[in-house]
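Hey,
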Amino acid sequence: MALFVIFVKKKNMKIIIVSLIFLLSSTSIVLSQDKKAQDILNKVSSKMKSLKCFYVEFNANVKSKNKTENQNGNGWVKGNKFVASYAGNTIISNGMKTWTIIKDEKTVYESDANNDSESVNPKKIMTIWETGFKNKYEKEESLNGEIVHVINLFPKTPAKSEFNSITVYISKSTNALKKAIMKSKDGSTMTYSVTKFQENPAINDTKFVFDKKKYPGYPVIKD
């Protein structure tokens, strides 16, 4: 939804929507020590896996030691295909190849979708707890007038994780992810707030096709 970090260079994108991601439709065992938290997260994961496709809009606030940035992003997901846009940059995946288009660099990075751990899939932030995290139920609270469950996630293997912790906010009434706060090891804090979520919209497969003609002068670098 890593939590999509200025989205200017490809290495930063894995921090976004794994930040979204960010693992696509894979069924994983959550390493949990909290039954209440696990039951809630299972409901969210089941709901996400039941969708044929979805559209999401989000706001990302990134605070580092030297600056604070606030950007909006969106993404379309259909099966194992997705398109994600953030801060004017775009990632397109047709399920076999992933193209990361960096506006400031005027460069396209191409990689195999199955082997690309840095690609930003919007579904990642929507189910980020599915791999490598323990969880702990914290409390209920009100978020924008809606009651949400607050659940903390902690990496099972801290030495191998980018994050110290992740806090997710899940709607009590709809079992939908509303917000995620990711605290990274470099001291940055990324807050992702879902502002719109549409289930099973009509999405043409052409949206997931990379057209080099749309990016004249952009070299395509294959990983």
